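Morning. Coffee machine broken again, so started the prediction first thing and wrote up yesterday's gels while waiting. Chain of 126 residues, entered below exactly as on the submission form.
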Amino acid sequence: MLKKFLRFGQYLRQRGLITLQDMINARILQIRHNSKIGAIAKNKGWLTEEEVDKILIRQEDVEKKFGEIAVENGDLTEKQVDQLLEEQKIDYLYFGEALVKLGIITKDDLAAQLEIFNKLRLKDKK
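Came back before lunch.
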């Protein structure tokens, strides 16, 4: 049985399909590739670097998303946050995709393992 919050990378590691270093490399690729909504907002001229930094600092103290804080502060509207999130999704690189891009796992193996992983997760929820 899977633990309730077992993530896909840990699942692949337990199966011996990837190593800890593979997980780290895939996460680094994700971090370098995936844009943060603060950076997107700054590029659009909707937020200054100082405003982004203030939101990030506040985010350290509260369990809220960047967009929620920006709306609360009056820095962004909900419509702007929705637009930023949509733009963020366009080029988002998922963990499994990062593994494929790095040549650690094939697309076919990824699809098969995701199917098994999701079935196990659904089984654990019951």
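The first helix runs from residue 8 to 14. Going to sketch it on the whiteboard this afternoon.
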